[in-house]
């Protein structure tokens, strides 16, 4: 699904904004802003790396989806996570749809590529949900570890973690993102599945 050159320009603008956020973190010596900015920008160039090194061409809409998720996270590190109560929920929901999309696309491509693999729709739904929640739990553990390490070192945490209640709410939004992909992923991610399937076919030849 191609959605035009304007999406490519929007991706470039968000990349520039992320670089600006990274620079702010460097100038202000804010480790959290800087590290998350570097991480976010690295994610935005990943589609190009996959296209160049692995011949996996992601369509424009998916690239925009990825960039928007990390862009919102990078902005949140400037203070929106603390000042806007729903910002963390928004970024978790969007990030969870990306994680679920990766899990769904990979499993669906394996399903179509191999006659030895068959994933019924109900199994796929449960798989996407569990895959996303497992990734969410791993992320929460990383947030907790980052916060603890920051306190020991005496710097601002690279990742923000607000306690057990926040973790539970984060996982609820992770689950919501997984459900959205499980219900509507067939149409949105069909081109991504075909790209992965072509890659698997080339490797098996």
Automatic annotation (TrEMBL):
Transmembrane intervals: 10-27, 33-50, 62-81, 124-142
Q: Which UniProt keywords apply?
A: Membrane, Transmembrane, Transmembrane helix
Coiled-coil intervals? none
Q: How is this protein named in the record? A: Membrane-spanning protein
From which source organism is this entry? Answer: Haladaptatus paucihalophilus DX253
